[in-house]
Structures are given as C-alpha cells and as structure tokens.
Design goal:
The structure holds 2 protein chains of 2 kinds. Chain A is mostly beta strands. Chain A contains no helices and 11 strands. In chain A, strands 2, 4, 5, 6, 9, 10 and 11 form a 7-stranded mixed β-sheet that branches. Chain B starts with a strand and ends with a strand. Helices cover 0% and strands 55% of the residues of chain B. Classes of the chains: A mainly beta, B mainly beta.
Chain lengths: 112, 110
C-alpha cells in the first residue's frame, strides 16, 4: 500500500493563477481531509469529506474548493491564488469509526 | 471555535534528557491524540487516549488524558536524536474532525 499520496510536492504560483492539488489514498477510507500548516499555527482544517460525492467546510475554507468524485481521490482547488495561501498543504484520510488520520507527505505551495 | 494551547512552543535539550509537553483546552474532548511530524513529512500518530485519567505508554513515550478532559500531556524519556521533530496534540469530539494544537518543536543535542 502506498497509503496517502499527494501531487505535486512543490509548486510556485503567481498571484491570480489557479491550480489543483491531488490527494489519493489506497486504503478504502471513507473520510478525507485537507489541512494547511503555517508556522506556529499547527494544522488547520480547510475542507473535508465523509464519503464519495460529499464535501464540507472546515475551519479555513475561504479561497478553496474541493471535490470527491471518486472515493480514493480528494482534490483541492485554488481558483485565484493569493500570497496568503502560501503554506504547506496536507491531505489525510481515515476509516469511519477509527480515530487515526493517516497523512500524506505534504505539498509546499508558494504564491508570489 | 475550539482551540488548543500547546506548550512549550519549542525545546532544545541534551540527548538523554526527559521531555514533557502539554495541551490545554477551554472545551472538553472525548479523545486526545498525539502526533509526531518528522522534517519534510506528514504527521504520524504516536498515542491515542480515550478515557479521562487514562495513562498510556508506547516505548519511551507516555501520555495522559487529563481528569477534567480539558488537557493532556506527553512525556518522552531518555531522548535520542531521532526524537527531533514537531509534536502535535489533537482533540476530538465529533466522529470525523480533529482540533490540532500549534505544535512543540523538539531539537535534541547529541
């Protein structure tokens, strides 16, 4: 099992550009999450999904959209990137009824 | 919203020393979890706590779920260089969302 994978690993965008971050998990988990990690602020939940075809807002959803068309994939989109979205983005998944979230290796995004 | 206060923010210790870090919350949690993040990686679960007062060990790590359900601590005994990383506490009430602390950055001097 590869676990949770994220692509790309690094990306530099200019203000106003758009991009999509892809998260894939091969553990057949129901729940998937997108977090951002900023210095001194821990992990903050952007959006999450409790099953294929469902999404919900987390703590900091503004400026992001997500889609869960397939159970194994969770996409995070930035329609018009802003410098405030410079961060490290982590995807995670877990099985319903379990507590442990499994994290991907992260995507480091810089918006100039 | 719920917030977790994690302290200390960072620690720089000598190899072999013991380490203690804690998290406090203004709200009650049903579950406390402790994660470790190695440099350049995603967080990995170390210990999960499910009952108030519970004390759980995992090798050199020991964690406790506070009696009030509003706090938890993590101890690392006899630290080694590979303990370097960021340690996060996380509290859970709902079945699907975690609230993370801001992290404790641990550096170990050989």
């Amino acid at each position: 099992n590869a676990g949770v994978t994220q692509t790309p690993k690094f990306r530099v965008l200019k203000t106003g550009q758009s991009m999509t971050l892809l998260c894939a998990q091969d553990m057949n988990h129901e729940y998937m999450y997108w977090y951002r990690q900023d210095p001194g602020m821990g992990l903050r939940l952007i959006h999450y999904s409790v099953g294929e075809g469902t999404t919900a807002k987390g703590e900091v959803p503004d400026g992001y959209n997500v889609s869960r068309l397939k159970k194994q994939n969770f996409l995070l989109g930035l329609e018009s990137a802003a410098p405030s979205q410079t961060s490290v983005y982590f995807c995670a998944s877990k099985e319903a009824g379990d507590n442990e979230q499994f994290f991907g290796p992260g995507t480091r995004l810089t918006v100039l | 919203g719920q917030q977790l206060n994690q302290s200390p923010q960072s620690m720089f210790i000598q190899e072999g020393e013991d380490v203690s870090m804690n998290c406090t919350s203004s709200s009650i949690f049903n579950t406390w979890l402790w994660y470790k993040q190695d440099p350049g990686e995603g967080p990995v679960l170390l210990i999960a706590l499910y009952k108030a007062g519970e004390l759980t060990s995992n090798g050199r790590l020991t964690a406790q779920f506070g009696i009030t359900r509003k706090d938890s601590f993590l101890n690392i005994s006899a630290s080694i260089p590979s303990d370097v990383g960021i340690y996060f506490c996380a509290g859970q009430n709902s079945s699907y969302k975690l609230i993370f602390g801001s992290g404790t950055r641990l550096l170990v001097r050989p």
